[in-house]
Amino acid sequence: MEKESLWKKSLVWKLLFISLISWAVLALVFGFLDLQISISIVDNTNPFGIFGADYGEGPGWGIFGVALVVLIGSAFSNVNRQKIPGYILMGIAIVALVVGFIIDSEDLLHYGGFIGFSILGFVIFTKNHDWRKYRNLALIVVLLFVINPALFVTGTKPLFGRVRFRNLTPPLYPEYTPWFAPPWLDLENLSFPSGHTAMGWMLLPLMIPLRNKEIWIKITGSVLILGWGFFVGFSRILVGAHYASDVLFSTGVAVVVVILLYKKYYLK
Question: Is the pLDDT reported for residue 115 higher than 60?
């Protein structure tokens, strides 16, 4: 067991090193090619881009809602009491969904729908399970949300004030700035980094429970999780909402945070 743990720790450090090097190389490349990439591929009418814009954040909000109620509920030892936070947040989400229908609010429809139905499905699936065994995974999901979408993305956007590609003036695009340009406070231009991408990678911690599954489950789960993250990021570039580097930095932070949290909570 000790040799296996040492091997896993070594593998984690190698994965972290590869991730950081890849991030640095791509940051350098995109720093000079961001504008050209967007000019080449942006299509505001692309259905995949529109789908990503409308629904890309949804699964991330769903898994965050589930993780939050698991983290709160796992404070109780009684299995039935553990589900109470789930019922409460599910009720709030359903009310938001109904209000969204009444006032025709897409945000309330999406947030209420994804959070409410995600919690409902999880509660049904784990009705007789002890949520304490999911506590570490739930904690990683919640911490990832706090560190990446809530702090990094929300805090960085107004500091860099980067103009989105779709708001640039062709053909010379004089408002364009590379990601490494000196930051300045701007509450209107919020391209860097990508919030949709950060929420798209909220599913990344679900790679952790796959490590002990059968090979076909590992492959299928990995393709779905990684595929969704890459799809959401690419869809944001496709509709001109973000540049490649905007997507890269949200992705890089997600990957590094999950690796470090996995090491902390699973490889003690």
Answer: yes
- Residue 170: the pLDDT is 94
For 144-186, what is each residue's pLDDT tens digit?
Answer: 999 999 999 999 999 999 999 999 999 999 999 999 998 788 8
d(CA 234, CA 177): 20
Q: Would residue 25 count as lying in a domain?
A: no
173 Cβ neighbours under 8 A, 6+ residues apart: 35
| Straight-line distance from the first to the last Cα atom of the chain, in angstroms, rounded to the nearest whole number | 12
């690796």: which residue's tokens? 259
Helices (H), the chain: 2-41, 47-55, 58-73, 79-82, 84-103, 106-125, 135-145, 154-160, 195-200, 215-238, 244-266
Q: Which range of residues forms the domain containing residue 116?
A: 51-171+187-266
The answer as to whether 67 is a domain residue is yes
Q: Exposure pattern of 84-119 as b/e (b: 16+ CB <10 Å)?
A: ebbeebbeebbebbeebeeeeeeebbbbbbbbbbbb
Q: How far is it, in rounded angstroms, from Cα 25 to Cα 29?
A: 6
DSSP assignment letter at 42: -
